[in-house]
Design brief:
Blueprint: H1 4-9, H2 13-31, H3 35-42, H4 58-64, H5 69-95, H6 100-116, H7 129-139, H8 150-166, H9 169-188, H10 191-207, H11 209-217, H12 250-253
């Protein structure tokens, strides 16, 4: 069989298929609850995907809106990943405890798919770093395998070091996507877990393909916690009362802002 953990479970393939389908549907639906989109559309009434990089991620939300609602985005994207994995663990424990590690990866994969390609938001989601990071932490909580703690250590440790040293969030994100399959394979040595972890890592890298191109070209934007104020030129005349600062017509000043052409800084989401 594809997985030694499934062999050890000793459960009929029919029951496994039903349980796997149920976990996949619940995890995907939880993943579809995109915090950045929900908060911007239904609280701020201004879809974040129409601003900045157009990405439904934490970085773009913070850059566009900022404020305490950023923490609500973080909380929602983390909680949905935790709930998806906990639900899978609950089901697996009632079928066979040996299936718990596999169930974690199965739920994490479909939760990430829901986050990246939510059917509720025209399949336009985030890049999976925030939810994926929460999933990596949940993978490290396997009491039956003491080595599982290395999964979040390697994934998060490399991410933090690279992002802090270079201020390129996308570089840390690429490390997370690349390292996740390797450390998962080292810890579990199970073919199906390795396959799922390769899928997760591949999805993260695919979502960051434009960032990778910009990193290679040296045009990637660096992360900043503060919004940059527009700079004034020396020969710019002072604005008169009731007139836009740049002297343009009033209708030009009220025109909707175009999405930023710069990089999306790797998007924490």
């Amino acid at each position: 069989m594809l997985s030694r953990l499934m062999d050890a479970a000793g459960v009929s393939s029919g029951w496994l298929a039903v349980a796997a389908a149920g976990v996949a549907v619940v995890s995907y639906c939880l993943g579809c609850f995109n915090g950045a989109v929900v908060v911007s559309r239904y609280i701020l009434h201004n879809d974040v995907r129409g601003h900045g990089s157009g990405n439904a991620g934490l970085t773009n939300f913070h850059r566009v809106f900022g404020g305490p609602l950023t923490f609500l985005v973080i909380l929602s994207d983390v909680i949905k990943a935790v709930l998806a994995v906990l639900f899978a663990v609950f089901i697996a424990e009632h079928i066979s405890p040996s299936l718990v590690p596999l169930a974690r990866y199965w739920a994490g994969t479909f939760c990430l798919l829901g986050h990246m390609y939510p059917c509720t938001f025209q399949f336009r989601g985030g890049k999976g770093i925030l939810s994926g990071g929460a999933i990596a932490i949940m993978m490290g909580m396997d009491k039956g395998n003491p080595y599982s703690v290395w999964i979040p250590i390697v994934v998060w440790g490399g991410f933090i070091i690279l992002a802090a040293a270079t201020r390129y969030v996308s570089l840390g994100s690429c490390w997370a996507g690349l390292s996740f399959p390797f450390v998962s394979g080292f810890v579990y040595r199970d073919q199906l877990i390795i396959l799922l972890s390769v899928l997760v890592g591949g999805l993260i890298l695919w979502k960051h393909r434009q960032n990778i191109v910009r990193l290679v070209k040296g045009t990637e934007s660096k992360f900043s916690l503060h919004k940059k104020a527009p700079e004034k030129t020396e020969d710019e005349p002072p604005a008169r009362a009731g007139e836009p600062a740049d002297g343009t017509a009033e209708e030009e000043a009220s025109a909707p802002a175009e999405p930023a052409a710069s990089g999306d800084e790797g998007e924490l989401e």
